[in-house]
Amino acid sequence: MSDKSKNWILAIALTVAFIANSAFAGLFKAYDQENPPVKMDNSEICHDEDSSHYEITKNFTIFGSLEDCLDAGGSLPNE
Length: 79
What we know:
By secondary structure, this protein is an alpha+beta fold. The protein has one domain (23-79). It is 35% helix and 13% strand. The protein is built from 3 helices and 3 strands. The protein has helices at 3-20, 22-25, 66-71, and strands at residues 38-41, 46-47, 60-63. It has a 3-stranded antiparallel beta sheet. The termini are far apart. 14% of the residues are buried.
């Protein structure tokens, strides 16, 4: 097996492992107006649509649920 083939297999395996990790599974969830994503800001605070900072949070990582965001190391806002 060539090195190029080994690299492709490794890349695929790492991608599958990343997607399978429950903390990141929410990143691949479909979003809509009834199910907006949770935003983790640069201070690692998780904002769901009920947060007073949700609309003004511009630099963030998205999560499928508040639980996914908290599991990834985020915290709740002090509101």
